[in-house]
Design brief:
It contains 14 helices and 10 strands. By secondary structure, the protein is an alpha/beta fold. The protein has 2 domains: 214 residues, 3-Layer(aba) Sandwich (Rossmann fold), CATH 3.40.50.10490; 165 residues, Rossmann fold.
């Protein structure tokens, strides 16, 4: 398979030898100091038994019109990104609806009304089992399933992905005997796409999870080469760090392919939650060009120079359209024009003082989705360590939860 490549357009970085030493220290710290949080790091080269995933996903496709996936944050963003990127926009036999990621009564009620006359299955994802948005949704959904399928049969349509031994959901699995899958204890939510958390929903959509793992395995090999000159993952982490240290505060992350929109939201959580601590960190913003050039293009070109762009370039399209006309567009493909838009914008923005990182991927496929997931997970962990923050905790998230519970329990 062809490799991805990375190109940087901006101020020259002259002290690469110094950065080699920094990345080696970050790599060592990742493997030693955070050894209890890096189950994802060598996951692609470990044995993966997908037989159970295949059996359950086939069962869900056979007996369901709609699959509900209840989860929030890392419990759904990765699979949502993969589904948008890898499935046809319009030819989907199994409809997948994400739920349990907000407190909106309007949304939940509309979903319940919509599925009332459909055959439905449910995947509930939470490592702790205490995530409030998901647990509240599950209460309503459980009642719905019992009323629709009966006190016994409803259990055959509910699947739980949670911690192997602990938590409220594991207790419920043991009590109700739901079919369950494990989340490894040493893998946090935002690093869990290549576990059952991401793979089961993707398999239900007919996506080849073994091919995803092949791509992740290739990325594991490439992203663990001990050389900044040969390792694009290292380069991405270090260029971001260099730009951050040179007064860049915002990373616009996106592509010229609309199917990368939710991949951008996954990237936003991965980096935002891993880096945004102790007053540090880049603020990640998902974009899709050329669409967002008509809303943000003016700001990027002539606004404050506190940002840079990371763009995923897709070299080849799966389907092609050729323009027939008498002007300068004659016989040009739409994908060719899309990449010309990328090149023109790249030139304009860099001339305007906005650095760009361009990560080129040969095509959109299951293989390269797996590759990109691992690539960004590894780069993110190293980026956070370079900032001298913990890549794997989220104390700020716990603050809002604490205040919310105080209000619910005490009225203030």
């Amino acid at each position: 398979m062809e490799k991805i490549k990375l190109e940087y357009y901006g101020n020259s970085i002259n002290d690469l030898d110094d950065y080699q030493e920094k990345i080696e220290k970050a790599e060592k710290k990742l493997r030693v100091e955070y050894k209890n949080n890096i189950g994802w790091l060598d996951l692609p080269v470990k044995f993966m038994d997908v037989d159970k995933i295949k059996v359950v996903s086939n069962k869900i496709r056979d007996n369901s019109d709609v699959l509900l996936i209840a989860g929030i944050g890392g419990s759904y963003l990765g699979s949502q990104a993969g589904l948008e990127l890898l499935r046809s926009y319009f030819n989907n036999n199994l409809e997948i609806i994400f739920i349990g990621n907000s407190f909106s009564s309007d949304y939940l009620k509309e979903v319940l009304d919509y599925i009332s006359n459909k055959e439905v299955s449910l995947i509930v994802i939470s490592k702790s089992g205490k995530t409030l948005e998901t647990s509240i949704a599950f209460k309503f959904l459980k009642d719905f399933f019992i009323n629709k399928y009966g006190e016994v049969s409803y259990k055959d349509r509910i699947y739980v992905i949670t911690d192997k031994n602990n938590g409220a959901l594991r207790e419920m699995v043991n009590k109700e005997n739901y079919e369950s899958f494990e989340i490894p204890s040493d893998i946090g939510g935002r690093y869990s796409v290549l576990t059952n958390v991401g793979l089961l929903p993707l398999a239900c959509a007919g996506i080849d999870v073994e091919e995803i793992f092949k791509g992740a395995k290739a990325a594991h090999e490439d992203c663990n080469i001990n050389s900044i000159y040969s390792n694009y993952c290292y380069q991405y982490a270090l260029i971001r760090h260099y730009l951050y240290n040179n007064n860049k505060q915002i990373e616009l992350f996106g592509s010229y392919e609309p199917s990368f929109r939710n991949f951008g939201y996954w990237h936003q959580q991965l980096f935002g939650e891993s880096e945004g601590k102790e007053g540090k960190g880049l603020f990640p913003i998902p974009i899709i060009y050329s669409t967002d050039l008509h809303s943000l293009g003016q700001y990027v070109q002539e606004g404050p120079k506190n940002l840079f762009e990371t763009i995923i370039k897709v070299e080849n399209s799966k389907q092609e359209l050729i323009i027939k006309s008498d002007d300068n567009l004659n016989n040009k493909s739409l994908h060719q024009i899309n990449n010309v838009a990328l090149e023109g914008t790249l030139k304009a923005h860099t001339l305007g003082g906005v650095p760009n990182i361009v990560i080129s991927v040969p095509e959109i496929s299951d293989y390269y989705f797996g590759y990109l997931v691992y690539f960004f997970e590894k780069a993110c962990a190293l980026s956070a360590i370079l900032l001298e923050v913990n890549p794997f905790d989220q104390p700020g998230v716990e603050t809002y939860k604490k205040e919310m519970l105080n209000i619910l329990e005490n009225g203030k």
